[in-house]
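We were asked to recover a plausible sequence for a given structure. The inputs and outputs are reproduced exactly as logged, with field labels preserved.

PROBLEM: sequence recovery
POSITIONS: 354
GIVEN STRUCTURE:
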């Protein structure tokens, strides 16, 4: 049986070829009744628009690309934990792409590679995406931003460190969220609160560290530098940091890790050391990944609107609200701040009595 074409759909719906094309490309100014008639005809015939043909027919590629950190993503998968952040970004972006007839491509970017300029340039030339979603640290990488601006490719920055930088941004207030977690622990009566810093190349890591320090200062609580340990958002780094913290002579009674993977590492280290959670040490994380609800005890954490951020970024790109190149740089910046939520669970409680 010959494949169904746009001409067959037009004939069945009794409309012009142009009308079918506008419906399939999700273009505006099509009457709802007409759109419904075309879609019903396409479904009845089993018609599926060919992506290559659609690309050749106009200037669009119908591709949205997501740039993610290669090193961190690979480390997460190797440790068999994490990658939840990427999964939620994919979910939010895919939902929008599917509804609009776009395809989503996830590209790993090695920000430490000396040939990053050549690789990203070749990627943009080959894909010719209609838009790019930049996740940290791509959202602050000067080379990546320069190449996108030169190519005229529209992009949206997710969670950038530099909120005054170029291009539209969709983010949450990492500083305020970390401050609220620390305030929660201090409000329970904790005075010695340890902190595990996230991947240093990610802007969110420093914002969360500053939020922790601000809350401690506001409460009049001193901070021993031995209570602050460097991590990299992986389970193992949280585990190593917690081992060091729990070995201190005057150890913290609460530990706040900059993401849930590291917080799970803290829980594991506490269990290995025979330290009860939350009886002897409270533990809090950041992200509200599925693991936060499955851990024992369940993890107090911050729920990031990651899916919503990815949905909004994709919608901005697909609807053409983001301009590329010089036009985008000169336009009024888009700055979308989405709310977070502090989730109280069983891993935090008042400190043990002296």
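RECOVERED SEQUENCE:
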């Amino acid at each position: 049986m010959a494949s169904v074409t746009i001409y067959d759909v037009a004939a069945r719906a009794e409309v012009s070829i142009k009308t079918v094309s506008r419906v399939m490309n999700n273009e505006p100014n099509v009457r709802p009744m007409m759109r419904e008639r075309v879609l019903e005809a396409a479904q009845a015939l089993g018609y599926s628009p060919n992506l290559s043909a659609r690309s050749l027919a106009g200037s669009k590629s119908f591709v949205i690309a997501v740039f993610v950190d290669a090193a961190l993503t690979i480390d997460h998968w190797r440790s068999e934990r994490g990658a939840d952040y990427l999964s939620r970004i994919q979910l939010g972006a895919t939902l929008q792409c599917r509804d609009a007839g776009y395809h989503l491509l996830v590209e790993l970017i090695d920000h430490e590679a000396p040939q990053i300029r050549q690789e990203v340039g070749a990627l943009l030339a080959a894909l010719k995406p209609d838009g790019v979603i930049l996740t940290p640290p791509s959202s602050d990488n000067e080379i990546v931003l320069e190449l996108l601006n030169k190519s005229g490719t529209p992009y949206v920055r997710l969670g950038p460190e530099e909120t005054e930088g170029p291009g539209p941004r969709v983010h949450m207030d990492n500083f305020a969220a970390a401050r609220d977690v620390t305030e929660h622990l201090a409000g329970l009566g904790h005075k010695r609160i340890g902190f595990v810093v996230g991947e240093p190349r990610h802007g969110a890591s420093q914002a969360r560290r500053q939020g922790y320090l601000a809350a401690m200062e506001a409460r009049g609580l001193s901070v021993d530098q031995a209570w602050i340990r460097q991590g990299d958002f992986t389970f193992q780094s949280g585990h190593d940091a917690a081992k060091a913290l729990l070995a201190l002579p005057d150890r913290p009674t609460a530990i706040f890790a900059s993401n849930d993977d590291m917080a799970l590492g803290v829980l594991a280290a506490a269990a290995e050391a025979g330290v009860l959670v939350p009886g002897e040490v409270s533990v809090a994380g950041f992200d509200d990944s599925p693991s936060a609800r499955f851990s024992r005890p369940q993890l107090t954490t911050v729920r990031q609107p990651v899916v919503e951020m990815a949905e909004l970024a994709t919608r901005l790109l697909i609807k053409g609200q983001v301009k590329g190149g010089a036009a985008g740089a000169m336009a009024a910046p888009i700055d979308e701040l989405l709310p977070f939520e502090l989730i109280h669970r069983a891993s935090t409680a008042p400190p043990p009595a002296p």
